[in-house]
Amino acid sequence: MMRVRKLVNFVAAACALAIGIAVPATGAQAEDGYDLWLRNAPLDAEQVERLGLPARLVRTALVEGAQSPSPTMNVATAELMHGLNSLAAAHPVERGSGPGRAIRLDCPESRADGDAAFTIRTVDGDIRIGGNSDLACLYGAYALLRELSLGTDPDTLDIDSAPAMPLRLLNHWDNPDGHVERGYAGRSIFDWWHLPERLDQRMIDYARANASVGINGAVVNNVNARAFMLEPRYIEKLARLADAWRPYGIRVYLSARFSAPTEIDGGDIGRLETADPLDPQVRAWWQAKADEIYAAIPDFGGFLVKANSEGQPGPQDYGRTHADGANMLAQAIGDRGTVIWRAFVYSAQDETDRAKQAYEEFVPLDGAFADNVIVQVKNGAIDFQPREPFHPMFGAMPQTRLMLEVQITKEYLGFASHLAFLAPMWREVLDADTGRGGSVAEVVAPAGMAGVANTGSDRNWSGSDFDQANWYAFGRLAWDPALSSDTIAREWLAQTFNREEAFLAQTAPMMLSSRETVARYMTPLGLAHLMATGHHYGPAPWVCDLDRPEWNPCYYHRADSDGIGFDRTATGSNALGQYAPAIADTWSDPATMDEHYLLWFHHLDWDYRTQSGLPLWDELVQRYDQGVTEVDTMVHTWDDLSAYVDPERHRAVAENLRIQQREANWWRDASIAYWQSLNGLPLPQGARAPSRDLEHYRSLSFPEAPGQ
Ligand code: BDP
């Protein structure tokens, strides 16, 4: 059918109010971090003029049929109105004809789930945002505001943008009681207790933030899931969130507890004795559950499942495989959604190197998973450490869609108080050549990326201002894994704090090196998992006596009087053998390899000569010291930038940096004291002795540390 289009003037805010779309919250406390990167801080007068403000905002609409603007289009228009007015300061943007530059939204199809690709072009002075779905226009609107906010000349706009991967999901490890596992930003943002009746404005602001960086789904509950979140009362609550987020293109997903059929009633079927995925009654139970969810939430994204991992139930409890379990759920969901099955598995009974276990369990199942199953793989084979080589499963399962899971919340990188910008770490993985026909980014392109969220009830959402950058970076990289870390850092800084080059030139480099700094003072040269037990706050490389061997830092560093490191070559666990031979080769020789992974793959004597010519012990101490010195520099750099940042946020960042400075010294001193107790070596010339003895560091205990 031919469609006739016509430009109509459009009163965005009025329509928005009429259909209950929330316009962005304006911050009464504007500079407390709540507005994230969506501040749209006023441009200077010259830029406002260049932008042609006051602008007119017009949109296209279909005139055939009962066409009223979709909720998504209403949001796009409201965001532009709000954002442009904010950028233009006192020059109000108008909604109709008249003088000034026009900004047009040209997205004819009213589909919120359609093609997200958009274009932005300036033609004859007018700015046109185009795409094939309303969602494309929404993404385009946010992109335009971002560009203008960065100071881009509007006359040069010529953007073609499309997401590199279909699923760009936040995984919330939020429990229904409000506690967030590995959360360092307060309580959960989800007010399950008052839902569905009460919807917090934060839920709209959350959707805005996500949509502005292209995130299109949220798994709202912890992977260590409670079965009752599948009960009708929770489905009702979830439906309210789904309704609120739909205009923003955010689909809801649930973590599903595999044993749910034995723990909660499933409608007419009731509760079962088994959760065996091949049992017809179990299959019927999940089918009924899926139907019930889809009746309430037609665009429900699907289930995320942590099975047979760290004590969670799963198909192996019944002698079945991961594929049996995943496929059973996939059948229940059908083509309505996706089953995301986590590959984060390891067992206390299995003596195999923990780094090898997921590959061994999953790779033989390649090709056995249903089409609507995605296997979600952490960036590295152990567990979100400050540095890990990419997971060997990437590239090794060509018949299976694999999704990359990264951790935005900084469980192992100093919680919320340490400044560590994670884009460089994620890029390291995305860029890694699997040696099996593509980079990790290429392997995951048909599936997507998941990020374990760092959101919480803190006013600034993420526990610290700089941690917002990691939420931002996650979305931007999932949309476009080719974006450089520098681009992302500058974009975020300019929108969040200040767009002046003098500010960006100092802060962007500080962000870019920050993750490496953390890796240096915590786990240099490829060491891993040396954090304290349970909460993972602070160093505890001396812990060797926990029941499960692979929960002990000693398991990972294998240090003794002779040397340190985990031999994962053919003479050791041969985890190296799980990589493509060309890649394994690059890590097999300590004399030539990238030393960032040195002790991950090799056990070496303390007097081994590293590539710098120094003995390993000296090299290690030097790296700790470098990490500590770099934090000192960060402290001073930031102190000098007070002219560019509002006092409240400047002080908050400065105070966090001082915590980081103290804790970096703690990591260095405690680690060195412990290694010295094993190797008996004197400190390298000029190195400062730890400020306390080992017993002091060992005696420290933090039962109240957050996030456990
Ligand atoms: C570990 C966390 C634990 C998570 C687990 C997972 O310490 O809280 O449940 O990852 O990813 O790093 O399932």
TrEMBL record:
Query: What InterPro entries would the database entry show?
Result: A-glucoronidase_C_sf (IPR037054), GH (IPR017853), Glyco_hydro_67_C (IPR011099), Glyco_hydro_67_cat (IPR011100), Hex-like_dom2 (IPR029018)
**GO BP, one annotated term:** xylan catabolic process
Where does the UniProt annotation place the signal sequence?
1-30
Q: Which domain of life is it from?
A: Bacteria
Q: Which residues form the Glycosyl hydrolase family 67 catalytic domain?
A: 152-461
- Keywords of this protein's UniProt record, alphabetized? Hydrolase, Signal
List, for all copies, the residue spans of the domain called Glycosyl hydrolase family 67 C-terminal: 463-686
What Gene Ontology cellular-component terms does the record carry? Answer: extracellular region
The record's PANTHER family line, in alphabetical order, gives:
ALPHA-GLUCURONIDASE A
Q: What is this protein called?
A: Alpha-glucuronidase
Please give the organism.
Answer: Aurantiacibacter zhengii
